[in-house]
Amino acid sequence: MPRRLLLLLAALAVLALTSLAGIATAASTSSGAQNRVGALQTPDASRVGLRTSESPCTHPGLLARSAEVASGFCVAAEGEAAGTRLYRIAGPNETADIEDTGGYRLGRGQEGKNFYPTQEQAVNLAQMYNDAGIGGPYSLTSGVFSPDLMDTLEPFNPVGEGPSYFARGQDSLDQIFDVQIHGPVP
Amino acid sequence: MSGVVARAELSLDAGTGLSPAVVSDGSRSVLFKFATSDGEVQAGAAIEIDGSPLEPGQSGTVTLRFWADAATPFVVPGAEFVAWHSRDIGRGRILSLI
User: Fold this and answer.
1) pLDDT for B37-81, tens place per residue?
2) How many contacts, defined by CB atoms under 8 Å, are there between A and B?
3) What's the angle, vertex CA A114, arms to CA A108 and CA A118, rounded to 5?
4) CB distance B42–A158 less than 8 Å?
5) Going from the N-terminus, what domains does chain B have, and what CATH number goes with each?
6) What domains are defined for chain A?
7) Which residues have a Cβ under 8 Å from the Cβ of A54 and sit 6 or more positions away?
8) Over the stretch A124-148, which tens digit does the pLDDT of each residue have?
9) Taking CB atoms and an 8 Å cutoff, what residues of chain B touch A110?
10) What is the ipTM metric for this complex?
């Protein structure tokens, strides 16, 4: 076989291998994107990119750059994907844990956590804690609950706090996504 | 200081599987439910406890630091309450205000 033909075949083989590798990479990326966007209730979904308020559909580098463009991965509008944001006051240990893990975790002995529909209620609770000399400093935190997760929450209405929701168990907390620390409550 | 602080007798139900950490010094994880003519009122309080945490089946005297001023009308000596964390975990009575 002429040497030129051998070189041509080798180049084609290299090209083919490179293309296969690219497809594998894309498949891996798309799988992650689908998990993040299409299955918001999975634990994995709640652990990706939690520190920012960016939607996965607008995150640079993902296959789907716009929620409005149905790419097979972002099939819901951003607002629909966002669900309902609920707020919670966290003490220093819990705030540090959120910084470390990107999500809410049950404290020792806890069986659930309480969340408020408005940040004003959460801030009000921190101020009541401060006024009563209970612990602190406190930070305002929040996370987004899917409609299905909202259906599992147990409503409460403690005096002075207004309506709130109890999220029972670590499984529920794992489904909260886009967990954010907004900052300390003065 | 705001809210209302009270000494209370607290008895935890046996067999609830409750972690001792829930009723320990500094815990804010327990809700206290007071019966009223209209139903019940729920109030949050931080628990202050001298010594070991209370475990299921145990009773003890604790300090309850209710953080909401709105709890004041219900936290009165003699008032009985149900303690709740994820479920009803025990019962108690306000002994005195501090």
Assistant:
1) 999 999 999 999 988 999 999 999 999 999 999 999 999 999 999
2) 71
3) 145
4) yes
5) 4-97 (2.40.30.10)
6) 1-81 (no CATH), 83-184 (3.20.170)
7) none
8) 999 999 999 999 999 999 999 999 9
9) 19, 21-22, 29
10) 0.94
